[in-house]
Amino acid sequence: MRPIIFNNQEYPCRDIFIKEFGNVTISTVSLNDAIMNNSTYSSEEARFVDEKIFFFVEENELTLPDNVLSKYINEQL
Predict the structure, then answer these.
(1) Position 2 pLDDT exceeds 90
(2) Given the DSSP bridges, would you call strands 40-41 and 36-37 parallel, antiparallel or unpaired?
(3) Phi-psi region at 38: left, alpha or beta (left = phi > 0; alpha = psi -120 to 50)
(4) What is the mean pLDDT of residues 14-42?
(5) Residue 70 and residue 15: Cα distance in Å, rounded?
(6) How does residue 28 score in pLDDT terms, banded at 50, 70 and 90?
(7) Sheet with 55-57: strands ordered across
(8) Range list of H helices, 1-77
(9) 23 in helix, strand or coil?
(10) What is the mean pLDDT of the chain?
(11) Distance from C-alpha of 33 to C-alpha of 77, rounded to nearest angstrom
C-alpha cells in the first residue's frame, strides 16, 4: 500500500493485477468523496487524482487479498 495525498490528507491506495485490465490502482471511497462535489470534481487536481484510480472500495476492503479484491471488483463492474 501507498498513500495518495489530496488536499494535504493521505488516502491509502494499492496496485493490483486484474486479468481483464492489467495493473490498476485501487483506493478508498473516502478519497472519492473528497475529490467529488455533487457529481463534479472539487478541483482540477481532483480530476487528475481521479484519472489515476481504477476503482474505489471501502477502507477495510482495500486490505483483501489480491484474488478476492479482483473478484469483488469484477463483480461490481
Answers:
(1) yes
(2) antiparallel
(3) left
(4) 94
(5) 11
(6) very high
(7) 2-6, 9-18, 22-28, 55-57
(8) 29-35, 44-52, 66-76
(9) strand
(10) 94
(11) 19
